[in-house]
Specification:
By secondary structure, the chain is mostly helical. The chain has 4 helices and no strands.
Length: 62
């Protein structure tokens, strides 16, 4: 499980609701969630702002 998927689960977000909150497409979010697309620092900052966490908490495997 990726850290992003873990944090989303803990915060109560689905891929669909998180995609809407970030202004990105669901397919892109799912790629980040399953780890098939690495999260850049810039993207981690964007996600962290929405989730209220530090960017480092979202990168890599849980």
């Amino acid at each position: 499980m990726t850290k992003l998927r873990y944090v989303l689960k803990m915060k109560g977000y689905s891929g669909k609701t998180f995609a809407a909150a970030c202004g990105l497409g669901r397919s892109m979010i799912y790629k980040y969630m399953c780890g098939s697309r690495p999260i850049s620092h810039k993207t981690a900052l964007r996600f962290a702002k929405v989730l209220g966490v530090e960017p480092e908490e979202l990168m890599g495997e849980a």
